[in-house]
Every structure is written in C-alpha cells, then in structure tokens.
C-alpha cells in the first residue's frame, strides 16, 4: 500500500521508484498485484505522461494515506512509550502574523516538547490555505478574513485596525483619529490578502473613500514610508518600537469610533485526523493567547455553531 501511495503522490512510477530506491519494473508489478487483490484498476498508466488515479484509486489513496499516517503516528508514540511527543509538525502562517505569533509558540512549545521537529512556512493567506488543504501543512495561523469553507478553527485573539501616522502629522496630538479626517491624506495600503480587504472594509463601514497613494506588500516598507511623512497606513499588528528600519519615528493612534475587530485563528481541515503534535500545539497556542479561556472554542469556518 505504501508503494501505491508513493506512486499516487509522485505522479509517475519512475519518479516514485527513484524516491523509494526500487526498480520501476518491481514497483509496477507491485501496483498490478495490488489491483489484482482489490479487483479494481487503481491507476491509468500513460507512457511518458505519468499516471492518474481512477475513482477507485482516489478512494483507496485517501484511505491508505490515512492509515499510513496513523501507523507513523503510532510508531512515534510507541518509541517513547507514549511519554513524550516526537516527530514533525509543519505550521503555516500568514507572513505579517509570523513575527507576532511564531517566536512565542516556537520557544514555549519547544521547551515543553523538545523532540517535536517544528517546521514553519510563511506565505500569503491564500497560499497558506492552499498548502493546508493539499496536506502540505498540519495547521496554520491566519486572520479570520475570507477563509475557505471546510476549516475547523480555534480563536487565539482579536485585534483592531489602528492608524500609523508620521511623527509630524497634523493629527499627532490627538488621542484618536477618525477615518474621515484622513480621507484626503495619502494612504500607504498594505496590499496583501487579507490585510487590504480588512483595511478597505473599515473605510467602507465609515463611508470614506481613501486616497490610496502607495500599495506595498511589506509591513516594514509601509512603516518606512510613513516615517518619511509620505502618507499614513492602517495596521493591525502594532510594533513594540515606534521606529522604522531607517530610525524614523512614527505614531500609532486608535480609530474613533471604534472599528470592528478581526480574529486571529489557528485552523486545520475539517475531517483530517490531527496528529498528537498538532493537537498539543493548538492547545498550547490557545493557552498562551487565551489564558482565562482555555477552550477558545472550536468552530467550523462559515458556521457560527461550536463543535
């Protein structure tokens, strides 16, 4: 069954044979024997064009992957007598959240479970979701904005949009600012999904048409432009230091009237059996960011009911 799984994932018998260090002939014979035992064709073999799964092959692959992953999990657990967690854990994270979230989780979880090999991947939220649903990631940390259906989630915390102003801005002495007051000022928009969607939704809610001057994909670039008095920006991850990488100061002001929050969540595909390592990380993350409410609530994306 492992041979069949390898061929399905590699897309060709020759590629799988190279990965498994066996001959293509032996691998092809093993797949043929599996098809004979099951009484069904699993693969469509096209010379020089790899293989594709039949409907039965897809069903068998999904079950085989689940069972083989369970066997790996049992082997790792048995090696330690169930006393500690071992093995890989792959975490995806929206890149602007990574500096705020990952260091604390990596340090804290690593101290408790030193034998877990944590690998993390920073990317856009769309890419993080794609890799999560394709099985490349175990869990992911994202904003609760424009998430695809079929995800389970645990809430970590809520955050709010705030205004990043140059130190010499005319509103620098104000405790809070309105979006209407900034309508004609140049906006440095963090143009990355879902940050841009959330920012623009705040302007729509306030019936304000912002004057977008720059669209940037990097938080540090946005802060540097603001530091040079080239515009203002809207941020949801407030930096501890109010200074750009160039050493120029900026100000952070709350928005009035108060804007709606956006949730930061840890998510995983519904129907996927989580490893003990992934479950432990979810519990740890919730305990770090919701110490007074360890449940945090597991919900289905697109569904307000708790599960």
The mean pLDDT is 85
Helix content: 25-40%
- Rg result: 24 Å
Following the backbone from N to C, one meets helices and strands in this order, namely HHHEEHEHEHEEEEHEHEEEHE
* Coarse morphology: elongated
Major beta sheet, strand line-up: 4-3-5-12-6-13
Class of secondary structure makeup: alpha/beta
The poorly predicted ranges are 292-297, 302-307
Major sheet: 6 strands, mixed
Number of strands: 13
Number of helical segments with 4 or more residues: 9
Q: How much beta, percentage-wise?
A: 15-25%
Distance between the termini: 34 Å
Describe this structure in words.
- The protein is α/β, with parallel strands linked by helices and 307 residues long.
- The chain has helices at 2-10, 13-20, 24-38, 55-79, 98-112, 125-133, 195-205, 219-227, 276-289, and strands at 43-45, 51-53, 87-94, 116-123, 139-143, 151-159, 162-166, 186-190, 211-216, 233-235, 250-254, 262-269, 298-300.
- A hairpin with a 5-residue loop joins strand 1 (43-45) and strand 2 (51-53).
- Helix 1 (2-10) packs across helix 2 and helix 1 packs across helix 4 (55-79).
- The radius of gyration is 24 Å and the shape is elongated.
What does the secondary structure layout of this molecule look like, with pairings?
Elements: H1 2-10, H2 13-20, H3 24-38, E1 43-45, E2 51-53, H4 55-79, E3 87-94, H5 98-112, E4 116-123, H6 125-133, E5 139-143, E6 151-159, E7 162-166, E8 186-190, H7 195-205, E9 211-216, H8 219-227, E10 233-235, E11 250-254, E12 262-269, H9 276-289, E13 298-300
Parallel strand pairs: 3-4, 3-5, 8-9
Antiparallel strand pairs: 1-2, 5-12, 6-12, 6-13, 7-10, 7-11
Helix pairs in contact: 1-2, 1-4
């Amino acid at each position: 069954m492992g041979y069949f799984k390898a061929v399905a994932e590699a897309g060709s018998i020759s590629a799988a044979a190279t990965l498994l260090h066996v001959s293509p002939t032996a691998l092809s014979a093993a797949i043929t024997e599996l098809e004979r035992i099951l009484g069904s064709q699993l693969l469509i073999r096209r010379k020089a064009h790899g293989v594709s799964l039949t409907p039965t092959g897809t069903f068998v692959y999904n079950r085989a992957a689940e069972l083989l992953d369970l066997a790996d999990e049992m082997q790792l657990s048995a090696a330690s007598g169930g006393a500690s967690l071992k093995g890989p854990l792959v975490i995806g994270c929206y890149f602007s959240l990574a500096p705020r979230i990952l260091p604390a989780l990596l340090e804290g979880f690593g101290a408790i479970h030193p034998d877990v090999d944590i690998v993390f991947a920073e990317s856009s939220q769309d890419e993080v979701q794609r890799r999560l649903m394709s099985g490349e990631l175990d869990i992911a940390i994202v904003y609760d904005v424009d998430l695809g259906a079929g995800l389970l989630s645990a809430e970590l915390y809520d955050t709010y949009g705030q205004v990043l102003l140059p130190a010499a801005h005319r509103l620098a002495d104000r405790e809070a600012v309105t979006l209407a007051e900034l309508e004609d000022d140049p906006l440095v928009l963090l143009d990355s999904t879902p940050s841009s969607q959330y920012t623009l939704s705040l302007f729509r809610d306030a019936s304000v048409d912002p004057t977008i001057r720059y669209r940037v994909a990097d938080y540090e670039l946005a802060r540097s432009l603001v530091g040079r008095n080239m515009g203002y920006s809207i941020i949801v991850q407030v930096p501890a230091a109010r200074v750009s990488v160039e050493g120029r100061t900026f100000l952070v002001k709350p928005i009035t009237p108060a804007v709606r929050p956006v949730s930061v969540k840890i998510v995983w595909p519904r129907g996927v059996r989580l490893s003990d390592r992934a479950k432990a990380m979810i519990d740890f993350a919730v305990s770090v960011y919701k110490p007074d409410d360890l449940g945090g609530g597991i919900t289905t994306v697109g569904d307000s009911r708790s599960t």
